[in-house]
User: What shape does this take?
Amino acid sequence: MAVNLKQLTQNEDLLAGGHRACAGCTGANILRQIMLTAGKDTVMGGATGCMEVITTIFPYTAWKTSFIHSAFENCAATISGVETAFRSLKKHGELPVPREKMNFIAFGGDGGTYDIGLQSLSGAMERGHNMLYVCYDNEAYMNTGIQRSSATPLGAHTSTAPAGSVKQGKEQNRKDLTKILVAHNIPYVAQTTPYHWKDLATKVEKALAADGPAFLNILMPCTVGWHFDPAIGMELAKEAVENNFWPLFEVENGVYTINHKPKDPAPVAEWMKKQGRFKHLFKPGNEHLLAESQAWVDREWEKLLKLEAMTAK
Amino acid sequence: MEQKLVALSGNEAVAYAFKQARPHVAAAFPITPQTEMMHKYAEFVANGESTTEMILVESEHSAMSAAIGSAAAGARTFTATSSAGFALMWEVVYIAASLRLPICMAMVNRALSGNINIHCDHSDSMGGRDAGWIHLFSENAQESYDNGIMAWRIAEHMDVRLPVMVNYDGFIISHTADALYMLPDDAAWKFIGKYNPAYTLLNPEKPITVGPLDLTDYYFEHKTSQLAAYEKAPAIIQQVSDEFADLTGRRYGFAEEYKLDDADMVMVLLGSSAGTCKDVIDEYREKGVKVGLLKLRTFRPFPAAYLAKVLAGRKAVCILDRSASFGGQGGPLYTETRSAMYGLQVPVHGYIYGLGGRDFDLKQAASVIENLKKVAAGGEIADINLLGVRL
Assistant: This one.
């Protein structure tokens, strides 16, 4: 199951150009990469959010495969219905075009996944549907105007947890959704970024080949919400891996593998400094918040190393 | 048509009706008093009597969402709920109708919280009366079963393509053993027939986008096409009901007219209370009082023109609502019926009764008829009255 770049470039681009993503959006890039691997026999489902809004507006659609959106919190449940319909129609010999297998992919942002859609996601994963859920995690509710979510990191400025004269942005660390999904004991769970194309394509391939539900959490640098030059989104994705803020790892049937271990991780503050959402943390008096952010990254990384060692075959 | 006389609860009757439609997918979450319906269905599947794939979701919101996904994929799909479960689905109830997905739902009517109450009233389905579904009401297990058979034909008709809810009163119908005639499986299947979806997500050679962003330039037109489907629905409901009558001998329309031909006074209501009213009407008829009952079957689409025709020329009409409309002008059935009667010059008044499962008894029905007599004789009564409540 080796990913072949030449092959990928020859695959049909199933997300048409002309969609309405912002300049420098890494989310649309994530969708294109997923589709290059998934191919035509795929049904995509989108939760309400940026990627749903930018890919459809009646009478236009950027989707060259079938796509369904129904609401914000229910994408996993909706796709679980599509997947069940497929199994039932197949069993009854009533598929419109006979297929042994099709891919069912639900996607949502962090708001639609970490927060409002968590119950629907948990239910669908527990029920064992043959589906992949992809969270494009840009660490806030970008579509509605950059409100904080439970994926927003400590200290980040958002419109509902802004930096002001008394408060310094979000007061909590983000929750660890990926490990919540690991706790569902599903066959495949992984984290990746759009910069790591080979890692991403491999993980999509493994997720779609899994016998049962799979989950991918993909960091999505957002030029609007993170406040950075639209040209450097991919670099920020790369750096988030190199400083251990967003480790590349996968969990196959409970066994952790860290796909990349940075030799000399850079301080997370260097990465934060390139993003306007953390600007206030570099003012005198906020050094402790930077230190806390670093300590959190270090602690989570240590935990991940231990999990890898603990679950090694 | 040879039919089998059986004793079943309303929940069991609807489970059988839905099974006979051979649905591909069912998605549901437990809530009293709907539970027994899904238990029965799960037994069918466990025993191999049905090949439906069941999605046993973690909430009613997900039940309706999964039903939407399944129906959009071209599968015949149902769900079932009551009360708070319907309230939790509310957002996606609208979406199911807006996407024109012919999902069928058993709606076992139960009071909404709070305070929490598990017994019958119609506040649950009435909360979703503008969501775009067809609402069929039933008086007993037989009508629940019959509506459960006809629902598929109505929902899936190409002129309609709207979801249908089969309403039947919680506990009073759902949990009471009742005698009813059931169609043999093959006859029911012949009547309902195979579902031919207009669109499916599952054809990679003909991909479709469902549920796109729809703004100021098209949303209104899409709502207009939904309204047009409602315009066409009454004729289809009647056509399906007539075919059903040919098959079973049981005739349905928008309403049942009970001793209405020569009635000076008319009671209008929905659901199981009709039985109580019929008994009391019989008593009054023996005394020569010309009173009749109009038991509405289709609350949505609301048969306004039909009601205006049937209620014209009466001396007094009253409308009984098993739900309140807080701050409104009486219950939903009252406001809609009174509006349909605009210009008829027929005195009309309303009642709120039976909230939270409060018994509707013979005495209450008799008091309603006494009031009708008073109004018919030129007396006055308040627009909205409460029945069976301690004041």
Summary: Chain A is about 40% helix and 15% strand. The two ends of chain A are 21 Å apart (CA to CA).
